[in-house]
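Predict the structure of Exostosin GT47 domain-containing protein.
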Amino acid sequence: MRVLLLQQCIGVSNPKTPPPEAIVSLMLSIPKSPEAQVSSKASFSTILQPRLSPQNPRTWIIFSVLIIQILLLCNLRTVPSSIPSPHPATTTADEATVHRTTRALDQCGSGKIFVYDLPATFNHQILQNCDNLNPWSSRCDALSNDGLGQPSAALAGLIPEDLLPAWHWTDQFVTEIIYHNRLINHKCRVTEPESATAFYIPFYAGLAVGKYLWINSSTAGERDRHCDMMLRWITNQPYFKRSNGWDHFITMGRITWDFRRSKDHDWGSSCIYKPGIRNVTRLLIERNPWDYFDVGVPYPTGFHPRSKSDITRWQEFVRWRPRHTLFCFAGAPRRAFPNDFRGVLLSQCRHSGESCREVNCAGTRCSNGTSAILETFLDSDFCLQPRGDSFTRRSIFDCMVAGSIPVFFWRRTAYFQYQWFLPAEPESYSVFIDRNAVKNGSLTVKAVLERFSREEVRKMREKVIEYIPRLVYAKSKHGLEGVKDAFDVAIEGLFARFKEQEQPQFHKWK
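Done. Here is the predicted structure for Exostosin GT47 domain-containing protein.
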């Protein structure tokens, strides 16, 4: 009987505890087998009946003790259920909240950006005066579409039709506009400067000085005017004063030498030599390799993918494009330069027969709006990249976006310029030829390039194609989902740089 009641109490057969009256009734009415009844009548009937009689007080004592024991056991079983436990739904909701917070932190884990609201005279008003930014012609078309320029309708038939909307005639000096538009729409932009780790100064320094570079009558004061005004404004900002500019950055949309005038009668602006900009990181299409604060970023090309699928589609197109020419050169000689190396390359190209294809860019024949350069790069295994008016040239990126392998003659043309964007092993994607050996006739470009096997060429081209996303600027102001373009790589590099500067071993001067 006790075993049965215990089983009922602990939930073996019935989780409900029977009331005391039922226990008493059950104990008094336990059925017996016929044999047990006979045996009981023969041996114990006379003894037990008086003792178990309801009228006997001992019976009630026994029953009371037994009932108390059963109730205690039952209560012990129910104690854990009285302790509150986490509700499954609540736990799931909490975890979801944590996961959402973690994702948000992951997206901006490297840092957050505050974009200064500069007076319009430093950016928007410069764009509004696009008719007056060039002494020869209007630049309004070149600066349209948020700096991407006019659509490249002339490329129809040369590139896949579905990719035509991703191509524009983009000017090489518009990174200031591109970076500004991307930063004001950046997922990690903050409006409270106290939560920022990087501060962006949206000053269009290159566009501001550009109109004065080609006017002989311009004064040093005119070329420095916008920069001086900007520095007076920014150096009065509390967060600039706090860091002395170390966590600030700016995009300067020309080569660094356009901002490094040493004497009043020399070329360009002296903006980089101004004290207020000394510690500000500067994004330039050509850097001074010996200046820590100069960072080289890719020249804008005409390809502005709208999505990751545009990238993949273009990579497949250039990967399987038939190439009939060993190498090519697009450029014009610099006859005013003594021992002009471009003239040497053009001469070698012309003497290489069908192995080389030339695009003579004398005058304005290679200005924005021609498909001849892209077509030449698409048809060639290698593209020659001597220095331009400075050490770099936009053609490097036009060449690589077309899947052609660049051939360099100065290490400062690419290797010392764009370390954040190009492979660490130069030989994996490019060829370097000693220009002096070419000049003195001991080497010909054709002979050097013919030594590479088809498999070696394929591997180098594959590396070039792999890096195309890091060399182009997306069409969307929000970037591309699932792939990093040149802008994303630059911002990641800035965050890493500012983090490095906060390490104890890093020395900051005032």
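The two ends are 92 Å apart (CA to CA).
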